[in-house]
Design goal:
Distance between the termini: 31 Å
CATH class: Alpha Beta
Strand order of the largest sheet: 1-3-2
Order of helices and strands: EHHEEEHE
CATH topology: Chloramphenicol Acetyltransferase
Largest sheet: 3 strands, antiparallel
CATH superfamily: Chloramphenicol acetyltransferase-like domain
Structural class: alpha+beta
Strand content: 15-25%
């Protein structure tokens, strides 16, 4: 899909969004606006179904497909895209001991935090599995 054909709508930023953009650009490695979720599931997980479900959620809600354009502009814009592919990382931890799985999970979360808050659409989905994927 060409870039221009992938634009669903364009809006100005709200005052709160302007503040978040300012702080994100000022301290690009800050994790102040970054939310991470880590869960341990007691049952098997159908990872492909989870990924597909997240992709459907993104397709349904434009806010999850929104990017921000501020370079060379007096007034920043938010651009809702028609389609965005969910970046997805799967990490198999089944060969590690439980303590190594915890350490590796903590390392993965720390690495992810270092990437900081992204002003582009939904940035990433990561799965670490203690059972074979």
């Amino acid at each position: 899909m060409k870039k221009r054909n992938n634009i669903e709508d364009i809006y100005p930023l709200s005052p709160v969004q302007r503040g978040i953009l300012f702080h994100t650009l000022y301290a690009s490695r800050s994790s102040v606006y970054l939310v991470q979720l880590s869960s341990v599931l007691s049952q098997d997980l159908d990872i492909s179904a989870l990924k597909q479900a997240w992709q459907q959620v993104m397709a349904r809600h434009p806010v999850l497909r929104t990017a921000f354009k501020w370079e060379h502009r007096d007034d920043p814009l938010q651009i809702a895209l028609r389609q965005v592919d969910l970046p997805w990382l799967e990490v198999d931890l089944c060969h590690l001991s439980p303590s190594e799985q915890e350490r590796r999970t903590a390392d993965l979360l720390a690495e992810d935090r270092k990437l900081g808050f992204n002003v582009q659409p939904w940035e990433r989905g990561n799965i670490g599995s203690p059972a074979p994927i």
